[in-house]
Task: inverse folding
């Protein structure tokens, strides 16, 4: 019964069919990895979005816990994404960049949640499934990572949804593809911090708004980062990736103490 | 020993072959002469019915991949008066410019990008029962030029842009490049059709989740000025 599961999710109780749990992965330096057990129904996903906004206590974290960063390497599995070169699919670049960024963030005291760790891990991961994992992670920042072979430099995107005040949201139901609206203001500030940091690393960077399904449903400060080619280097170039990853990690360290760096639980970390 | 009738037949066929070759060569020469006689100043092909003979200023919002910008650019082109054909002509011209090899936002596709364009009066209402619909037979789905202005003044319109699948399939994949394409279309519609308040895309008559794997194409977008100034911070 999908609505039964929806009821349990509204109470913040993961059900057997649609549960999500965080497992400490000893092989990844204590980085928690979220696993989605089975595909959720639409009502359950809708309820998850409602629960994420209305019942933040459902995912409250202990104060001593390290701040969490959610990294979603776009594409994966059969979805290869764009072709950066003839033999280089986007999914390989995004996962490499996510793993590189994860290491730098762990060193800086963050806990990192990855939606998947290898391209094959994402074989059964739907777009809604990624968002569900992110919304349950309690992250202070959710980064969706992309790569492109077209426009040069780094491109930062935030949701183009109109900004709404969380206080005005009240008890209104939240549409799954508009859950980001109350978070847009914070997402824009996060994007601004990232843009400044990447620019300081001598990398051309743009900052725009767009309509991405992966962003519009997130209930956290959310930004999409797209790596484009730079001079003779493709987005796969390790030096280029390392430079951008260090800039992003540095910006997130600053973001950690920012007043807007709040989780869905509403607590300042 | 070859029979006599075979020799005669062979000679006849040979003669025919030579004559046909000569005839083809002559036709070939005449065609070349005729094509060469056509000068560059020849009369252009007649404009289709409904096209105005006078050009008018049309604002295009042109994307630039390198700068990450969308900037307005005015061009003088001849346009028909009927709104849907007019919008289609404007968008075809926009995509035609992007199809050029030296375009700052190059898109490679075969044929035309637009399958169809139509307007829906807002708010969208369910269809009327047959008896009620019969009383208002003069009400049309596609407005006439004057009706377009009158109705738009009340509620505005939703422009539905039906793209060809061949265009969407050939579109470069990437958040930046897909965003610039769609924002360029939205801004161009807004600049030339202020009556349009909402815009929706279809691909071969169906909704499509993304344009080329990234930009959500299944939403209803507000018609607004999408001019993007350069936010590129370079070292």
Result:
């Amino acid at each position: 019964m999908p609505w039964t599961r929806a009821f349990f999710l509204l109470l913040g109780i993961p059900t057997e069919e649609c549960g999500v749990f965080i497992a400490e992965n000893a092989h990844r330096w204590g980085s928690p990895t979220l696993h989605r057990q089975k595909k959720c129904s639409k009502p359950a996903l809708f309820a998850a979005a409602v629960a994420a906004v209305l019942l933040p206590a459902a995912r409250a974290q202990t104060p001593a816990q390290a701040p969490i960063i959610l990294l979603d390497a776009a594409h994966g599995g059969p979805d290869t994404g764009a072709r950066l070169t003839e033999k280089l699919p986007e999914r390989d670049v995004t996962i490499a960049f996510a793993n590189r960024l994860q290491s730098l963030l762990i060193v800086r005291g963050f806990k990192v949640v990855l939606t998947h760790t290898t391209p094959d891990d994402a074989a059964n991961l739907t777009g809604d499934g990624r968002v569900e994992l992110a919304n349950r992670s309690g992250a202070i920042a959710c980064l969706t990572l992309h790569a492109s072979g077209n426009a040069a430099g780094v491109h930062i995107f935030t949701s183009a949804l109109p900004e709404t005040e969380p206080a005005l949201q009240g008890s209104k139901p939240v549409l799954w593809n508009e859950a980001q609206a109350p978070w847009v203001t914070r997402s824009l500030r996060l994007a601004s911090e990232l843009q400044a940091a990447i620019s300081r690393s001598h990398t051309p960077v743009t900052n725009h708004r767009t309509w991405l399904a992966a962003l519009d449903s997130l209930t956290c400060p959310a930004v999409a980062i797209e790596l484009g080619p730079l001079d003779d280097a493709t987005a796969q170039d390790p030096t280029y990736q390392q430079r951008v990853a260090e800039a992003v990690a540095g910006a997130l360290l600053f973001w950690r103490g920012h007043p807007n760096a709040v989780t869905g639980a509403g607590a300042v970390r | 020993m070859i029979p006599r009738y075979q020799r005669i037949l062979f000679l006849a066929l040979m003669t025919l072959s030579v004559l046909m070759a000569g005839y083809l060569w002559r036709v070939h020469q005449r065609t070349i002469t005729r094509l060469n006689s056509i000068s560059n100043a020849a009369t252009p092909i007649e404009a289709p019915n409904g096209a105005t003979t006078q050009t008018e200023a049309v604002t295009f919002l042109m994307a630039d991949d390198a700068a990450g910008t969308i900037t307005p650019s005015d061009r003088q082109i001849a346009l028909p008066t009927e709104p849907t054909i007019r919008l289609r002509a404007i968008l075809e011209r926009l995509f035609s410019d992007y199809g050029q090899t030296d375009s700052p936002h190059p898109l490679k596709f075969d044929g035309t990008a637009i399958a169809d364009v139509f307007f829906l009066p807002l708010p969208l209402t369910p269809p009327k029962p047959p008896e009620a619909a019969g009383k208002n037979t003069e009400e049309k789905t596609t407005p006439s030029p004057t009706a377009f202005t009158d109705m738009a003044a009340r509620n505005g319109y939703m422009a539905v842009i039906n793209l060809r699948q061949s265009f969407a399939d050939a579109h470069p994949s990437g958040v930046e490049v897909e965003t610039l394409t769609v924002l360029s279309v939205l801004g161009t519609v807004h600049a030339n059709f202020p009556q349009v308040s909402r815009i929706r895309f279809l691909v071969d008559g169906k909704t499509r989740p993304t344009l080329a794997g990234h930009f959500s194409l299944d939403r209803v977008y507000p018609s607004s000025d999408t001019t993007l100034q350069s936010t590129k911070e370079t070292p």
The longest helix of chain B spans residues 4-37.
